[in-house]
Design brief:
mainly alpha, about 200 residues, LysE family translocator, cell membrane
């Protein structure tokens, strides 16, 4: 694939993925509430979910999302419910400051599921790959190698963006040392997570 096409794709993805949305809101809320050490399963699921949408677009499987629309609606609402549950846990978490971090961490499997549900159930991501991407790249001429190049480009852009958000959230968390500040952080994180759930639920 031509370098120009990859750069255009990277630029469009940078704008789309870099703008705060439900996925970024959930990620930032998680890091502020519990730190960054256990967030990798959530990130990995987000990246894999976007790779799934990209693959569906490249291989002409947009009809799957339409044919099995109900399945994607179920994924969306399961993701919303899980985010609401996480928001409730954050809101009610004890404001105890420990070097090891905030309350007991969720299992990697639960975090992975949350990240996948947020990504697959986010219409913003779906519309980028299934509606906007075909206007940027001639998907009909994309070979298997071209798909690999697009996937690698996507991974580099998303890793850069998401790690920057994680770093910013982690730095903000380090400033929160008192119990009052931690309680405030829990409440802000809970509200942000709930907002992410509401944003996903409100989008058709």
């Amino acid at each position: 694939m031509e370098l120009t096409s990859l750069l255009i794709f990277a630029g469009a993805l940078l704008v789309a993925a870099g703008s705060p949305g439900p996925s970024i809101a959930a990620l930032v809320a998680r890091v502020i509430a519990k730190g960054f050490r256990d967030v990798f399963p959530f990130l990995a699921a987000m990246w894999i979910g976007e790779a799934i949408w990209l693959s569906m677009a490249v291989f002409g499987l947009a009809f799957v999302a339409q044919t099995f629309h109900f399945a994607f609606v179920v994924v969306k609402w399961v993701g919303v419910a899980y985010l609401v549950w996480l928001a409730w846990k954050m809101w009610t978490a004890p404001a105890v400051v420990r070097d090891a971090g905030m309350p007991s961490d969720d299992s990697p499997a639960k975090l992975f599921f949350a990240g996948m549900a947020v990504t697959l159930g986010n219409p913003k991501i779906m519309m980028f790959y299934l509606a906007l991407l075909p206007t940027i790249i001639d998907l009909g001429s994309v070979t298997l190698l071209g798909w690999a190049e697009l996937t690698a480009t996507m991974a580099l852009v998303l890793i850069g963006i998401d790690c920057a958000w994680v770093l910013a959230a982690a730095q903000a968390r380090r400033l929160l040392r008192s119990e009052r500040a931690m309680r405030f952080a829990n409440r802000v994180s809970a509200a942000t997570m709930a907002g992410a759930a509401a944003a996903i639920a409100a989008r058709s």
